Amino acid sequence: MADLEKLLRPNPFAGDTGQRSQVVLDALKIEGLKRPTALLAALERIFLPIFPHLHPGFTAEGKVAHHERQPDPLADDDGLFQPVFLGGKMAIEIYSDAPTLLAMHPTARPVPLYVKEVARTALARGTGLLVLDRGTAHELYIGRSATLALATANTWLPPWQDEQIKTQLQQGLEQILQKLEILLPVELQILARENGVTVLNLHFAPSASLRLGQEDVVDRVWSVEQIQRVVTELLRIIQEQEYLRLRLDAVELQIN
């Protein structure tokens, strides 16, 4: 029997042409690191790619087997989460318009949904990660903190503007150097890319003159092994400190 409640429920996307809203178009025109936050703030209706299911088959009486005629696009976790995030992490693909979705998935059916519903689903049943407009020039990796902002209609603070992240990373580096008994300096810069990826730039000075005692001055040079150990320890700190782990889903280490 048909679900009358579902059939009688108003369609919030009736008349939707599948095109981007003007506010999204305006956000896409922004260049530089202001675009990710503007784009997130502009999202309201997005599209999910839904792929055709196999025919359910027939019963012994020759009738089509029971199946959901209008399946909930957010119900199938196996099809919803795909390894499309950085490092092959599982995430939900969302698209700002139907044509972009079909360019990536020609056989899919674009299903319009409110982005807050998808964000809540990603947090409740999966990794909390999203990828917007995958394969385009404005592809955006959306980590858990950004997904939470979408789910709660709050403003997202990018990691590269977060002073707490900078402080915790700097303190972590100082602890690493002390633990490894390395006297050479390393400089940390927190940068970013327009696709939402936070870049941790580590500058290892090629050499440094260190004063040992009152008069002795010696030159020290970073070894490859030392640099590798510092990087390994920094990645460990990011995973062990909850705030850093939750805020740095899309992160890239850059060494120079």
Structural account:
- There is one protein chain.
- The chain has 256 residues and is an alpha+beta fold.
- The longest helix has 17 residues, at 163-179.
- The model has no long low-confidence stretch (mean pLDDT 85).
- It starts with a helix and ends with a strand.
- The radius of gyration is 24 Å and the shape is elongated.
- The protein contains 10 helices and 11 strands.
Q: Record the strand order, biggest sheet.
A: 2-3-5-6
State the helicity in percent bands. Answer: 25-40%
- The helix/strand class is alpha+beta
In what range is the share of β-strand residues?
Answer: 15-25%
What is the count of helical runs?
Answer: 10
Indicate the overall shape.
elongated
| Spatial separation of the terminal alpha carbons | 65 Å
pLDDT averaged residue by residue = 85
Whole-angstrom Rg: 24 Å
Largest sheet: 4 strands, mixed
Low-confidence stretches: none
How do the strands and helices of this protein lay out in sequence?
Layout: H1 4-8, H2 22-28, H3 35-42, E1 45-50, H4 77-80, E2 81-82, E3 91-94, H5 98-104, E4 109-114, H6 115-125, E5 130-132, E6 140-142, H7 144-152, H8 163-179, E7 186-192, E8 198-204, E9 207-212, E10 216-221, H9 224-240, H10 242-247, E11 251-255
Parallel strand pairs: 3-5, 8-11
Antiparallel strand pairs: 1-4, 2-3, 5-6, 7-8, 9-10
Helix pairs in contact: 2-3, 6-7, 8-9
